[in-house]
Amino acid sequence: MEYILGIIILVITLIIWGYFLKKKHFKEIDQLEAWKMEIMNRPILDELSKVKQLNMTGETEEMFERWRNEWDAIITVYMPDVEELLFDADDYVDKYRLGKSKEVQQMISTKLTNIETAIEKILRELNELVGSEEKNRIEIEEIKEGYRTIKKNLLVHRHTFAKAADPLENTLDEIVVVLKQYEEATENGNYLNARELVLSIKNQLVTIQTKMEIIPQLLLDGHSSLPTSLLELKDGFTEMREQGYSLEHIEFETEILRLETELEHYNNQLDLAETETAEKGINEIYDSVNLLYDLLEKEVLSKQYLIKNEDLLKDSLEAFAYENDKLKAETVVVRHSYHVTESELSAQKKLEKQIDKLVKRFQLLSLEIADNTMISSVLSEEMQGIEAILNELKVEHEAFAEKLHALRKDELQARGVLQDLRKKMGDTSRTISQSNIPGLPEKYRNLLAEAKESIEDVQSKLEEKPLDMGSVHIFLEKAIASVTSLYENTEVLIEEMLFAEKVIQYGNRYRSRYPAVAEALRTAEQYFMEYEYERALEVAASAIEKVEPGYLDKIEADMEEVLS
After folding, report:
1. How many CB atoms are closer than 10 A to CB 338?
2. Which of 133, 176, 321, 483 falls 20 to 30 Å from 115 in CA-CA distance?
């Protein structure tokens, strides 16, 4: 029974599944049917009727017939095929041949897509044809007006175009011919060809207009401005040669001949209204002319620079050589009093050699300037190079002179520091004397001896000849450290002495009651008498702390009041 029930449920499930699957396929077929009807209902014939408003001859007639034939084929051949395939797809679904139905549906979709593509092509070509006719009709009037304006300007201002007026006029005559071709193409229904002619005429008019705008200025440049500039250059070159300038490096005559030949060529191009070539060439000639002006001007400015700065540089070199001689003599004097390192002496000698070499270099330059056969710009660059090196040597000279002066300054500074250290030692001695300290422990006496010895070492180094400031600084740093340590230890020593004395005095109250305290105080007093104040303080404080904890805080407070 359960087995039969399972079969029944399975059959019902398959029936329901088949129902929904068929429904899905029928829906897809309905969509293809709707797509087919949408294509058939398109107003293609209405669109084709627009062409009948044109001249139905030539390419217009040919294109119209082709479009109509293609549409007829779509309606009478392709669409019936689609209709038959739609019936087949329905039939396959009814018979549950769903895979076959899906295959047919794919064929229908491909055919409808191809039909859509064919229709879009027809409409695109149709719109292009109709649009061309409309654009041609509008733009041709603008073209004719533009032609008349250009023709009028050419006649009125013909003199400003010189020989270029004839080729410009020939181009306008060619446009008239193209206009006639346009009219013939339009009358014959060849609107696309007419469109190409319209665009061609527009481009020609733009080209002519551009040429007419720039030709007058190019004529002025090519026949007046540039020839004048070239003549001025030749006159200036001749005058500079007569004044003794060396100008062979410019190759002036060759360059001028080249520019004159090119200018003649571009003027001929301009007479033919070939403005693009002429404009580019004339601009390049302008660049070359400006370069020649710059080269000649550079030589003039270089000559002026040489005349202006030769004596100044000579005086500057002589003055610097004199200052360096003074520095050399000063170095000899300083070496008797101070130690000068070998590297510093080597730098001074190197500086002296560089000055001699620079002086000789300037002397050679002066001879070349006097000879007046060398290129002025080359000589000017050489002079500027000498000036640059001279300025560098001056910096080195100043740096070495500053080192020499610093030696005396360092000596005075060291003597001043030594004097301060002696004063600090005196202050330390007075502090010890005023503290009424019974005596000095051995450790402190060693610090005192070390501080005195370090001061004597510095004094000894300062009395050496030649004076080695490097060694002086080393011994001076040691003396500063020693005196500072002594000064700090003096304060600690006095504090320890006074503190130990106070603690021992305070502990006397416990001598009779605590034998251990009495014994510790006797030991502390012995250390005190031997000037070992730190040890005396440690022994006494430790003993009293045991019988009276915290008493040291009170004594420290009392000590701070006394010391303050």
Report:
1. 20
2. 133
Residue 386 backbone phi and psi in degrees, to 5: -65, -45
Map residue 467 onto helix, strand or coil.
strand
Report which residue type is found at 135. K
Per residue in 323-380, pLDDT (tens digit) is 877 777 666 666 655 666 666 667 777 888 888 888 888 888 888 877 777 788 888 8
The pLDDT tens digits of the residues spanning 195-253 come to 777 777 788 888 888 888 888 888 888 888 889 988 998 888 888 888 887 877 888 88
Structural domain boundaries in the chain: 2-138, 149-293, 299-412, 435-563
Q: Which residue is listed with tokens 């129902």? A: 19
Q: Give me 460's structure tokens.
A: 């000894």
Residues whose CB is less than 8 angstroms from the CB of residue 453 and which lie 6 or more positions away in sequence, other chains included: none
**Hey, which residues does 338 pair with through a beta bridge?**
467
* Neighbour tally for 477: CB within 10 Å: 13
Q: Biggest alpha carbon distance in the chain?
A: 152
* Number of Cβ within a 10 Å radius of residue 349: 12
Report phi then psi at 514, rounded to 5: -125, 100
Question: Could you tell me which residue, 255 or 365, shows the higher pLDDT?
Answer: 255
Q: Which of 472, 484, 339 is nearest to 415 (CA)?
A: 472
What number of other Cβ atoms are within 10 A of residue 385's Cβ? Answer: 13
Based on the number of CB atoms within 10 Å of its own CB, is 274 exposed (0-12), middle (13-18) or buried (19 or more)?
Answer: middle
Q: Is 170:149 a contact under the CB 8 Å cutoff? A: no
> In sequence order, what are the residues at sequence separation of 6 or more whose Cβ sits closer than 8 angstroms to the Cβ of residue 211?
164, 168, 273, 275
The two tokens of residue 537 are 């303080």
CA angle 55-59-61, nearest 5°? 55
pTM: 0.52
Residues 6+ apart with CB under 8 A from 523: 539
Euclidean distance between CA atoms 337 and 358, whole angstroms: 32
- Show the tokens assigned to 490: 């003096």
Q: What is the rounded CA–CA span in Å between residue 134 and residue 419?
A: 111
Q: Give the pair of three-digit tokens for residue 367.
A: 């001879």
Q: Answer whether 407's CB lies under 8 Å from 375's CB.
A: no
Which DSSP state fits 250? G
Report pLDDT digits (tens) over 162-187: 888 888 888 877 877 877 876 776 67
